[in-house]
TrEMBL record:
Belongs to the D-isomer specific 2-hydroxyacid dehydrogenase family. SUPFAM superfamilies: ACT-like, Formate/glycerate dehydrogenase catalytic domain-like, NAD(P)-binding Rossmann-fold domains, Serine metabolism enzymes domain. It is found in: Plastid, Chloroplast. PROSITE patterns: ACT, D_2_HYDROXYACID_DH_1, D_2_HYDROXYACID_DH_2, D_2_HYDROXYACID_DH_3. GO terms for molecular function: NAD binding; phosphoglycerate dehydrogenase activity. Its EC number is 1.1.1.95. This is D-3-phosphoglycerate dehydrogenase. It holds the Pfam family PGDH_inter. Keywords: Acetylation, Amino-acid biosynthesis, Chloroplast, NAD, Oxidoreductase, Phosphoprotein, Plastid, Serine biosynthesis, Transit peptide. Transmembrane segments: none annotated. Pathway: Amino-acid biosynthesis; L-serine biosynthesis; L-serine from 3-phospho-D-glycerate: step 1/3.
Amino acid sequence: MAASTSQTLRLNPIRNASLSLSSKLPLSSAFSVSLNPRWRQQSRRLVLIVSAGLDAKPTILVAEKLGAAGLDLLKDFANVDCSYNLTPEELCTKISLCDALIVRSGTKVSREVFESSGGRLKVVGRAGVGIDNVDLAAATEHGCLVVNAPTANTVAAAEHGIALMAAMARNVAQADASVKAGKWQRNKYVGVSLVGKTLAVMGFGKVGTEVARRAKGLGMHVIAHDPYAPADRARAIGVELVSFDEAISKADFISLHMPLTPATSKVLNDETFAKMKKGVRIVNVARGGVIDEDALVKALDAGIVAQAALDVFTVEPPAKDSKLILHENVTATPHLGASTMEAQEGVAIEIAEAVVGALKGELAATAVNAPMVPAEVLTELKPYVELAEKLGRLAVQLVAGGSGVKSVKVTYASARAPDDLDTRLLRAMITKGLIEPISSVFVNLVNADFTAKQRGIRITEERIILDGSPESPLDFIQVQIANVESKFASAISESGEIKVEGRVKDGIAHLTRVGSFEVDVSMEGSLILCRQVDQPGMIGTVGSILGEENVNVSFMSVGRIAPRKQAVMAIGVDDQPSKESLKKIGDVPAIEEFVFLKL
């Protein structure tokens, strides 16, 4: 197609302003020039923005170094501008000329960047996993897709974990420093062997699985904890899935590979260290926040933990006077898990393919933000979107570890015709609720189906057509998980599946069914479910236990089969009760089982 020949110049008169045109900006033969209305008082200058013609090749700005293989893929499709070490002002100036932006962790893609793009920026690619440096809310508001590269560094991270474990066991770092200091302390640095030792892999995802494979090759006995990993996948490589407490109490070595979520934050703490075998050794190439670092220092000093090898920290870089870093039994590296030449090239290729695919209009499997939804649709579905995610989040927390979630059935009851109710967003939010609490993946409308398929989860949908007015889009949503055991047996329906059901009442998501029991509790804060003998005083007893700890009860509902028989009490709480309070609830004679759930 021939390039457009139209050229326009639009300038707003501003007094005492000087015009500057960046010499770095590439121009095509067809271009338009417009004035950026952003006025910077401190510089007192007017920045002239030049944009390419509509039918020119797209322009991709690479703001941090990217592997050559990735750059070659980009150059085959687009004009590529490699401009490194840009200041925030320079990035905002250049961005209105770009259709896509690729960064690593050093460039902040702020709301100001999206506003400066004038709507042209379509894709931001993060060459790596974390997206803390990208304002996702602003990206979504401006209709910009954000993609990352989450898989290319799997082997590199696993290899680094094994390297740290071996170096720690044989005191490599300490002995090296000693020799370079002119000492020869062979007796001081006697190590331990890996062969025959028990390794507990905490988190059996991609990296954890690769660590397990390599540890088996070193002659180690490998056990793993991951409440949502399929047992058959673990068995296939000779790994036994066990409970959290069993894993940490049996292990000679513990290797952490779990995502940082509210459930895993500081999961290794004073209480869990006390359960470990004396002399245990810990490796962390996952996320710094999963370890309570002060508690780890105490465990090292007490000899509970013999050694630790850490690649990640709660704050990076850690303080120079950090007691943990300076501890003689700690081996530390500066977040090198993905730092191999091969991994960097793999990340470059992965992010280049994702960005090019997104610019071609293809659905990006690694998208980390939701695409724009028409305002009128979003307004109507908003409370049901919240309901859908919370039902998924609640259902997966009811699953007992070991079997893994494989089959999910979603039922929508509505008076609307099928063509008048698009359930893709609702299905995506249920998938988000099912997966995000147990992984580091960001799930949205773009990648929900792919993410579920990747994890072997089959989601089927069923619609119940109701009589009545179609003013409300839905009467209820029901989520069922088949072929799993439950932490709360009462959540199992008569047909054998975990079943939860909810409705929207006055704009608020409500849980209305658990298993065969009808309840009615607002899905706000957190939830306690208790199966009890239906007898007087139960509400008061549980309420008093919570009141003693100043835990506010927002809602309480009891569903029963028949008077004086079994009942399920659902209690909404604003705060998380202590373990002691939950134990008191469990010790009430009439309570047969209970579970605490975070919504």
